[in-house]
Design goal:
The structure holds 2 protein chains of 2 kinds.
Chain A: H1 2-9, H2 31-47, E1 52-58, H3 64-72, E2 76-80, E3 87-95, E4 98-104, H4 116-127, E5 132-138, H5 142-154, E6 159-164, H6 166-171, E7 174-176, H7 178-185, E8 189-192, H8 200-212, H9 227-243, H10 252-260, H11 264-274, H12 277-296, H13 300-319, E9 320-322, H14 330-338, H15 344-362, H16 364-384, H17 389-406, H18 409-425, H19 427-441, H20 449-454, H21 459-464, H22 472-481, H23 491-501, H24 506-530, E10 542-543, H25 552-586, H26 597-607, H27 610-631, H28 633-645, H29 652-660, H30 667-675, H31 686-693, H32 698-710, H33 715-725, H34 728-755
Parallel strand pairs in A: 1-4, 1-5, 5-6, 6-8
Antiparallel strand pairs in A: 2-3, 3-4, 7-9
Helix pairs in contact in A: 5-13, 9-10, 9-12, 11-12, 15-18, 16-17, 17-25, 18-25, 23-24, 23-31, 23-32, 24-32, 25-33, 26-27, 27-28, 28-29, 29-30, 32-34, 33-34
Chain B: E1 11-17, H1 22-30, E2 38-44, E3 51-55, E4 58-62, H2 64-67, E5 70-75
Antiparallel strand pairs in B: 1-2, 1-5, 2-3, 3-4
Classes of the chains: A alpha/beta, B alpha+beta.
């Protein structure tokens, strides 16, 4: 069958144009001719070697990423499109004597600039004018895929269709006449099977061929609209042509169509290019729009969308033959179980549980190894380096800081592996389908559920998981409320405080803390949805792609790309953050201690027995550490801001502990240890006893826990927020909002409790 | 009748896609829910919202409130 497809794909529609030898690339099929061909091919191309830019466009789930991975392998760069957090992937390969630069455009269903993805994809095609655009078309989904294809065709770029997964379509009883399709749209068509890596070379050769062809892009065989619309397009076209001095980067017909469709971005372009003549043009546009509105009793953009599909329906009728016999649709049967009324939710919960367990429980082993690796390294450095400020900076600042990032790596790798599996199998869409009703109550999309749930483990991967959300509004809102899901690093703090002050009811108290976080996230979601993110919700309209067996290669690429980004970008910010915190705790160097600890130690050395000596020295050393912490910049800052914390029942020690919690929440506990001059290892309950005998009450402990639950996230999370929102404003907003809510909630708890007479 | 009133396993033809939200309306159309398209209601989610349709040979889901903007003619054919 493949041979058959090959033969058909090797034809180009307009027969008057040359059908060269090169075009029928049946390499490795007829070796003798093939070698000859290749030689000519290379000789011709080596002389004028230049980089050919190829953009891959296509619907989500069309197998575009698989084809991209097949072409570029591991030689790909993943970053963001400028100014937005849409992933940009590009890769360079040398093939057939050409340097090819492949750009993976975001998967979109259309080029109407509603979503960021669509804007990014369209802008790239218009502004960067790639040499060739390959539109990857899911053959088993031809009709809808052709919508994007007709839009690309209208854009006047050199388009090439890759009919992907035609084997699947054939097995489902759909046969596509590629020659006819190629002829009807005047576009070369190549068959590919992405997941079997078939047809990729042919696709690239066809793309090179198209890029090198000097022929102008055919103006015919684009969408033809009904007479009224065509009239308006023509009139508007000549109207604009008369008034435009600069050349537009795209053709006038397209401009006219977009203006009739009231496309905001094109309007802005026209405003910039034509200056004061733009008003005239817009007035003309309005006249035509009004005329069409009267004629069709609907907005022109709606009518034109309708007509494009009408045009496509005509093509489909000619190129597709469907066999009447229905095959068993495995995907549909799988779905009947996975989204079943009764077992759908239990299965979903099971999957999430497995993901959660693996990420945080299984991930904790490599996490420990990494942690001991970091400890081992710092122990070696500790021994081998002479005492100096540099050594302290290296050990307590840099290594501690970088170490705190690296230990997250196993979690992140595992999490992203799961997310990649969910996405590549098609289950992610089903998770959103199941959860949407619940999430919609908070004003969010069903897909927001997974990041929020991950938040209970660690906010960093959770925030990175918001990438799966398509709407920017949903993404930012989810990012803002995810830190309220109490992360696992906060648990040691609750265990310490609740265990100390609420011994018997500790479990209930900790559970209530978690619930408080969830309730506040719901309130926040609803509040922001009706204020900051006002306006209609992003439409839910979502494709439920057929289930597919994921490809290991693409899973690994997916997982590794995202993890690499985490390491690279987060590393810098976290490093700076931990060095700052280190400096604040390590300086000033010359502290006026209340007593000379060294002298005291010497005294002890002289007088006590061995056993007493050891205990007394430890006590003195701890006291020294405590005093050092108290008198460091951090301690001073803590004391300075203590009045702010007084109304919520937190003393200066609490303030300092909370400040150090900025690096990582776990540190709060160890800071308490230092400030109360206890060493956990010596006596497990030492810190508990110290806390009990301090001024802290159960009420202030509860207030402190509430504050810890809600206040500003750790530096790694802030780095993630900065990265994923792509905006400093939202990052600062998140910090200020969470801390204010934390203070307000703790204030209510503490002062309310006092009024009720609790202690 | 409205698409949101259709039950699982029913088939219909889209008569009109309405609604005040222009962006949603256009998105719905662009995904292929155009006039004259045959739709099959595959199922409702366990919580009765959203619902899943088969159109043009692929599966798509819509919220019930979104489906309430779409007028359909029910076809009395058995699946």
């Amino acid at each position: 069958m493949i041979d058959d497809l090959w033969n058909r794909s090797c034809l180009r529609a307009d027969t008057y144009r040359q059908v060269t030898l090169f075009f029928c690339y049946k390499i490795n099929r007829i070796p003798s001719i093939n070698n000859q061909q290749s030689t000519i091919f290379y000789r011709n191309t080596l002389m004028h070697k230049k980089t050919i830019t190829i953009a891959l466009a296509g619907n989500p789930n069309s197998g575009k990423t698989t084809i991209f991975n097949n072409i570029t392998g591991t030689r790909q760069k993943v970053g963001n499109w400028p100014g937005v957090t849409v992933e940009k992937k590009e890769g360079s390969v040398s093939k057939f004597g050409h340097d090819l630069k492949i750009i993976d455009l975001p998967g979109t269903y259309s080029l109407t600039p509603f979503s960021i993805e669509e804007i990014v994809a369209r802008d790239f095609v218009i502004e960067e004018s790639p040499d060739v655009v390959i539109d990857i078309i899911d053959a088993s989904n031809l009709e809808r895929s052709l919508y994007l294809a007709t839009q690309l065709r209208e854009l006047d770029c050199k388009v090439l269709f890759a009919l992907n997964m035609a084997d699947l379509a054939t097995s489902r009883g759909t046969k596509i006449d590629a020659n006819k399709l190629s002829e009807l749209l005047d576009v070369p068509v190549v068959f590919t099977i992405g997941n079997k890596n078939t047809g990729i070379d042919g696709l690239l050769k066809a793309a090179i061929k198209l890029a090198e062809s000097k022929s102008k892009i055919s103006q015919k065989r684009k969408v033809k609209y009904s007479n009224d619309i065509e009239n308006s397009i023509l009139k508007l076209q000549s109207f604009i042509e008369e008034r435009i001095e600069q050349k537009l980067p795209y053709n006038i017909r397209w401009t006219a169509i977009k203006l009739l469709e009231n496309d905001k971005i094109v309007r802005e372009h026209i405003r910039q290019k034509t200056g004061n003549k733009s008003l005239e043009i817009f007035r003309e546009v309005e006249t035509h729009r009004k005329h069409l509105l009267d004629r069709f009793d609907d907005d022109p953009e709606i009518v034109m969308t309708d007509e494009r599909y009408g045009f496509i329906a005509g093509i489909i009728k000619e190129v597709v033959t469907k066999s009447t016999k229905r095959r068993i649709d495995t995907s549909r049967n799988v779905d009947l179980v996975l989204t079943n009324r009764f077992v759908g939710f239990p299965i979903f919960i099971l999957f999430i549980w497995i993901m959660f367990q693996t990420t945080f429980a299984v991930g904790s082993y490599p996490m420990e190894w990494l942690d001991s690796g970091v400890n081992w390294l710092s122990a070696i450095l500790e021994r081998s380096l002479p005492d100096s400020l540099f050594k302290e900076l290296l050990l307590n600042g840099i290594i501690a800081g970088v170490g705190s990032v690296i230990i997250f790596l196993p979690n992140i790798l595992i999490l992203f592996l799961f997310i990649a599996i969910f996405e590549d199998t098609g289950y992610m869409a089903r998770a959103a389908f199941l959860m949407d009703k619940i999430m919609h109550l908070i004003g969010l999309h069903g897909k927001s559920f997974i990041p929020m749930l991950m938040g209970f483990g660690c906010s960093v991967p959770a925030i990175m998981a918001t990438r799966t959300l398509e709407s920017n509004k949903d993404r930012i809102l989810t990012i803002l409320i995810t830190p309220f899901m109490s992360c696992s690093a906060k648990l040691p703090i609750y265990i310490l405080l609740a265990g100390t002050f609420f011994s018997a009811r500790a479990g209930t108290v900790i559970f209530s803390i978690y619930i408080t976080g969830i309730i506040l996230s719901i309130i926040t979601g609803r509040l922001f949805r009706s204020t900051l993110f006002k306006g209609a919700d992003a439409p839910f309209v979502m494709e439920l792609p057929p289930y597919r067996v994921p490809m290991i290669k693409s899973l690994i690429i997916h997982m590794w790309d995202r993890s690499k980004m985490f390491l690279k970008k987060m590393g810098g910010i976290i490093l700076v953050g931990s060095v700052i915190v280190w400096m604040l705790t390590a300086f000033p160097r010359n502290i006026n201690y209340s007593m000379d600890y060294n002298e005291e130690i010497n005294k002890i050395n002289a007088s006590f027995t061995e056993k007493q000596k050891k205990a007394a020295i430890t006590k003195l050393k701890l006291a020294e550490q405590a005093e050092k912490a108290e008198k460091s910049f951090m301690g001073r800052i803590g004391k300075t801001i203590a009045p702010v914390f007084a109304p919520i029942g937190i003393d200066w020690r609490g303030s300092v502990a909370l400040l150090t919690g900025f690096v990582a929440k776990e540190i709060v506990v160890s800071t308490f240890g230092i400030l109360y001059a206890t060493e956990e290892t010596d006596e497990p309950d030492a810190l508990k006893n110290a806390l009990l005998s301090s001024e802290m009450t159960s009420l202030s402990a509860l207030s402190l826990m509430i504050f810890v639950l809600l206040y500003l996230p750790c530096v790694a999370t802030i780095a993630a927020i900065r990265r994923e929102t792509g905006s400093l404003k939202w990052t600062l907003f998140s910090i200020v909002y969470s801390t204010s809510i934390a203070w307000a909630a703790a204030f209510c708890v503490y002062q309310g409790g006092k009024i009720l007479g609790l202690t | 009748m409205l698409l949101s009133e259709m039950k699982e396993g029913q088939t219909g033809i889209i008569v009109y896609v309405g609604g005040n939200n222009g962006a949603l309306r256009r998105r719905v159309l662009e995904m292929g829910l155009t006039r004259g398209t045959e739709i099959y209601v595959e199922k409702y989610a366990p919580l009765k919202d959203p619902l899943e349709l088969i159109i043009k040979g692929y599966h798509i889901s819509l919220r019930v409130e979104e489906a309430a903007n779409i007028t359909v003619d029910r076809l009395m054919i058995d699946d």
